[in-house]
Description:
Blueprint: H1 7-26, H2 40-51, H3 61-64, H4 67-82, H5 84-96, H6 101-111, H7 119-149, H8 153-168, H9 187-201, H10 204-215, H11 226-250, H12 262-275, H13 291-303, H14 316-331, E1 337-338, E2 341-342, H15 345-372, H16 377-388, H17 403-429
Antiparallel strand pairs: 1-2
Amino acid sequence: MRTVLHPARAVALGFLAAIVVGTLVLMLPAARSGSDGAPVLVAFFTAVSAVCVTGMAVVDTGTYWSGFGQGMIMLLFQCGGFGMMTAATLLGLLVNGSPRLRTKLMTQMETRTLGLGDVAAVARLVLVVTFASELIIAAVLTLRLRYGYDLPWGEAAWSGAFHAVSAFTNAGFSIHADSMVRYAGDALVLLPMMLAIVVGGVGFPVLHDLRKTSRNRLRESRHWSLHTKLTLAGTALLLAGGMVAILLAEWHNARTLGGLSVPDKLLGASFMSVAARTAGFNAVDIGALTQESLALHYFLMFIGGGSAGTAGGVKVGTVAILVLLVLAEVRGHSDTEAFGRRIGAAAQRQAITVVVMGSAVVVAGTMALLAVTDFPTDQIIFEVISAFGSAGLSTGITPQLPASGQLLLTLLMYLGRVGTITLAASLVLGGRRMPYRYAEEHPIVG
């Protein structure tokens, strides 16, 4: 009898295979600027960061890697953001016209669709939205770089395409050593990047829901799924709240936003709020942020974006469920409710499990990294959460970490990108009814 590979295991192995292939290719002399190939650790770290759409780097992407190497990195984070199982399904659709049940199950797990009947539609939506968004953003950036910065057409087109794909996949890789700092006051560069980050990170089930609503004008927002409502509401709250908090913390900081005009401060704070949640780009020096801003980044990076999108973190919907659970408990309500719907007990337990285990990984990673480095604790915490949340931001210490520290970050990147997916899938697919229940008792809490 033929054994069907568990979808969660298939995703983990798919990402691992892409990392191995990426490492081997990046070790080739042709991938590096110069005559020698990249060392194993550099190639491995870069491949993990790209496949897990994190954006952390131990070398300057723009100068260390050749054009071929940069192209390979872009291909890796395109595959990582697209989703290994989603890509497999799309290939099946293009070749066979109808994916098999096993492939449907794999894609269902990766995209979190509610029913198998929606998988083909979601897969097509992934394809259309991904490439349409990337092409449009790439065109806008190319024109801006060509006419606003006088770059040659070839250089402008490559930079536009690379940053467009990196933004949509929330990868955070840049071919500039200063990321987006050189464009800190340029709305024609930062706003398209922000749009790509949000669209890619909100999650494909939400985009699928919005598409269905737009095709039927009789339907209103009240017909959206609870997942869509929670994700959109949570995303709006985090973006607006993050921007205000960053403005308050950095308004007078001469090393970040302090020297900018008011419109540029608003633009910079908005970009920081958007990018902090897993995109990994920075328009100011992260190492110059105030302690308040660093603490805010911990929070935003850990939460991340929407489920089944290109963003990382424990996801907005997961945290929204926990907040609603706490509010219900404080109010003395027996049910956890939102937008006229009751949230099931299974979803609540899964949300608690994901956040608790994610927090445990961050704590363990912080303790382990502190044991092998002498950097300040706040910078270590920042790097660990950034790696786990696939944010990719750095205070600048990543290249200076010892080999053991960099390998630890690769493990955190993999766990953050693949671990949360496989954990959530295992919780859903592994649920079963027990034939008995123990007597209930109430331990003392608090």
